[in-house]
């Protein structure tokens, strides 16, 4: 089983991330497209290859949390899709096995008695945009061994998100990421959808949680981490230790080593 780390705001270079990854006995770094240096058009493929070779690590990609290929503006949706296609092209050259994405939540209209989600209200257009995005990604990936894994967020608790995930999973290119803290922080309301598609589980984000507090180092929250690790092992997932500080990552790696997971 492969454990990895996220790109950390404290680490100002990819090489420093890779060095920490190796020091902690981890296998990969998940590059975040929320950061400017990890945009597809700014990646130096040869440099990334050299760093991976030097430190014995590989990469996964976390697509931008603002990704919205379902935007009702066709030009905006097309730019989001093209951004992902550019990253897919880069991942082919780097032998990246996983791109992680969130389903967009879209906007809401607040009425006197309720909130109306526009993706629910205009579901045919939302699903049509998602189908176009899916098909473009499938064509770009072609026969490469790359999975686009959809991470559980609050969209998993919405009807449009549940149908959207099903549409994406109609292609074997798409799979599921289980972020255990996101689920816990939302009163475990996302788990039923994950269980419904448990045969497509491919990637996990592991961190502790306590109430609504997320991204805690392992051992500092209330979650039964071993239960989730067993699930990850059963489905042969890569697992990111998704804590956001160097100290928290060290603490989490030590927690795993003491229990012989690393």
Give an overview in words.
- This protein has 262 residues and is of the alpha/beta class.
- It has ten helices and twelve strands.
- The protein has helices at 14-23, 45-55, 74-94, 118-121, 123-141, 159-168, 180-185, 191-196, 225-234, 246-258; strands at 3-6, 28-32, 58-62, 98-102, 108-110, 115-117, 147-151, 174-179, 201-206, 208-210, 213-216, 238-241.
- Strand 1, helix 1 (14-23) and strand 2 (28-32) form a beta-alpha-beta unit.
- The protein starts with a strand and ends with a helix.
Radius of gyration: 18 Å
Unreliable spans: none
Broad structural category: alpha/beta
Got a strand count?
Answer: 12
For the termini, the CA-CA separation is: 9 Å
Mean pLDDT: 96
Main sheet: which strands, in order across?
1-2-3-4-7-8-9-12
The helicity comes to 40-55%
Brief overview:
With 262 residues, this protein is of the alpha/beta class.
Chart the SSEs and their pairings.
Layout: E1 3-6, H1 14-23, E2 28-32, H2 45-55, E3 58-62, H3 74-94, E4 98-102, E5 108-110, E6 115-117, H4 118-121, H5 123-141, E7 147-151, H6 159-168, E8 174-179, H7 180-185, H8 191-196, E9 201-206, E10 208-210, E11 213-216, H9 225-234, E12 238-241, H10 246-258
Helix pairs in contact: 1-2, 3-5, 5-6
Structure characteristics:
42% helix; alpha/beta; 262 residues; 8-stranded parallel β-barrel; two-stranded antiparallel sheet
């Amino acid at each position: 089983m492969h454990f990895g780390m996220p790109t950390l705001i404290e680490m100002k270079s990819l090489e420093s991330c890779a060095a920490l990854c190796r020091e902690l006995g981890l296998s990969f770094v998940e590059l975040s497209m929320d950061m400017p240096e990890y945009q597809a058009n700014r990646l130096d493929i040869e440099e990334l290859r050299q760093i991976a070779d030097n430190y014995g690590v590989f990469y996964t990609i976390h697509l931008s949390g603002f990704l919205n290929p379902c935007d009702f503006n066709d030009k905006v949706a097309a730019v989001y899709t093209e951004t992902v296609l550019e990253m897919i092209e880069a991942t082919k050259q780097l032998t990246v096995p996983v791109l992680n994405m969130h389903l967009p939540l879209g906007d809401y209209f607040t009425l006197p008695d309720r909130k109306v989600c526009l993706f629910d209200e205009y579901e045919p257009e939302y699903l049509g945009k998602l189908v176009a995005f899916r098909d473009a990604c499938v064509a770009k990936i072609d026969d490469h061994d790359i999975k686009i894994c959809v991470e559980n967020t609050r969209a998993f608790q919405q009807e449009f998100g549940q149908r959207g995930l099903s549409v994406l999973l109609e292609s074997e290119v798409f799979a599921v990421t289980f972020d255990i803290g996101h689920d816990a922080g939302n009163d475990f309301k996302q788990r039923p959808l994950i269980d419904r598609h448990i045969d497509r589980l491919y990637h996990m984000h592991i961190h502790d949680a306590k109430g609504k507090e997320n991204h805690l180092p392992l051992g500092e929250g209330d979650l039964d981490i071993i239960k989730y690790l067993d699930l990850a092992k059963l489905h042969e997932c890569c697992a990111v230790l998704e804590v956001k500080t160097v100290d928290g990552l060290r603490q989490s790696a030590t927690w795993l080593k003491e229990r012989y997971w690393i």
